[in-house]
Amino acid sequence: MPINVQGDKEFNNVTSIQNKALRINLNENIYGTFAEIGAGQETVRNFFRAPNPTGTIAKTMSAYDKDFSDAIYGAEPAKRYVTEPRLKAMMAYETGLIEKRISRLKHPNKLFFSFANTVATIDWAKKYKGHGWIGIRFQTAPKEEYNEIIMHVQLHENKAAQQQISLGIMGVNLIYAAYYHHDDPKTLLKHLYDHLSPDKIEIDTINFTGPTFKDVDNRLMSLQLVRNGMTDAVMFAPSGNNVLPANVLYKKNILTLRGSFRPVTNVNISMYEKSLQMFMKEHEVERAATEVIFEMTLFNLKAEGDEIDEKDFLNRADLLCALGHTVMISNFQQYYKVVDYFAQFTSEQIGLTMGVTTLIDIFDDKYYKELSGGILEAFGILFARNVNIYLYPAKDEETGEILSTKNLRVNNNTRGLYNFFKQNDRIIDITDFEEQSLDINSRKIHEMILEGKSGWEEMLPETVTKLIKEKQMFTKK
């Protein structure tokens, strides 16, 4: 018997939190548990306040005490409770329990779910803003394998009570969207912010799994978070799964390389390898304590106009993942914003690998007019911490001259600043390079691939060339 969890005329234009909870409560098939530990105990309250909560709520609980939580969901070896593994353990335990206790013979059409969150809100001293993991494990057909939507949120309001209210709203939005918008994950994402804004609560990681989402690429969901203004930056691992930036960057030395990577060329890899060697040697840091991030901005991803070609984005992502790299997508056009973002997670060394054209742009004061302190304010952020720039040379197309810090020309208004940072070894030339590699141009390579020409293969890493041919990437097909 088909179970109606799709839209209907009666509720199409009703979006209030109260009516979302009511619609769930009135659906005789949706039935599950709520487990909210830590500070996030507000979601189920919305369902209790709506009529007919017995139609939805099998059980609600809050194992606030850590010993009780361990006794129910298992001990946490690291004694950390606001984590993704804890959230998954909660949801798996609760759905297992409901399957065990509710008879399928008696309730053949039930769609079971377990909603859970584990959250720490802002502390009394306002030192820690608060964050948490929120998720739902749910069925869209009886006896179906479970689907999961798991996300991490940053809490930006200044009072714990306000953060709890926002968590409750987002929890209702998540449950409602899981059942009534699961067929369109992009729309689902947008509805998570009904009656909310990213100024209050920020989603910086989300992953969809299960049979309903078998065709969903979580990297595209990451991209949507940034495009929709739900967060400033997202990351995904070589596996393709979205990862929490804080987990990747926490107390790490960070080296980042920005580019369009359309496609990844031998120059990109040379920049990465040479700057990493210099970074580790100069700062005497271990590779295990260093994270290398390949960054693409929304601007990098826009091939033409304001639109982003998702297939083109996935081509680039596939290439970087195949090479084993962690990728960050951001809306940070200026580099000082990248440094400021990284500084949330680490006080260790930060390195920026870039080419000559990019460095010239950094010292152009026209890019900082929105700041009251102009370029000085931006550089106060960019160079205030342990930040070095590793400069890969370029070849002047007209003269053939190799451009480096020794002979490049920056904006006259900022030449003094440039000389100061260069003389203080904050801008360092990469000298170990192959001159012939400077003739490689990714835009020309892309055009050659698009037009079906040969001769580009040797300008790319072997793995990249093989993948482009196997998957017919960057073609007109």
Description:
Helix 1 packs across helix 5 and helix 2 (43-49) crosses helix 5. The chain has helices at 17-26, 43-49, 66-73, 84-101, 160-180, 185-191, 218-227, 245-249, 266-283, 298-301, 310-322, 335-342, 356-362, 374-382, 415-423, 442-450, 462-471; strands at residues 30-38, 57-61, 111-121, 130-138, 147-155, 201-209, 233-236, 242-243, 253-258, 290-297, 326-330, 350-355, 387-392, 394-395, 402-403, 427-429. The chain starts with 16 loop residues before the first helix and ends in a 6-residue tail after the last helix. The protein has an eight-stranded mixed sheet with strand order 8-7-11-10-9-12-13-16. The radius of gyration is 25 Å and the shape is elongated. Strand 14 (394-395) and strand 15 (402-403) form a beta hairpin. With 477 residues, it is an alpha/beta fold. This is Nicotinate-nucleotide adenylyltransferase.
- How does CATH name the architecture of the largest domain? 3-Layer(aba) Sandwich
Alpha-beta classification = alpha/beta
For the sheet with most strands, the description reads: 8 strands, mixed
Rough outline: elongated
Q: Indicate the CATH topology of the largest domain.
A: Rossmann fold
Are there runs of 5+ residues with pLDDT below 50, and where? 6-14
Oligomer: single chain
Total domain modules: 2
Number of helices: 17
Helix fraction? 25-40%
Number of strands: 16
Mean pLDDT: 91
Relevant CATH superfamily of the largest domain:
HUPs
The proportion of residues in beta strands is 15-25%
**Spatial strand sequence of the major β-sheet:** 8-7-11-10-9-12-13-16
Radius of gyration: 25 Å
Spatial separation of the terminal alpha carbons: 41 Å
| CATH classification class of the largest domain | Alpha Beta
InterPro entries: Rossmann-like_a/b/a_fold
Protein name: Nicotinate-nucleotide adenylyltransferase
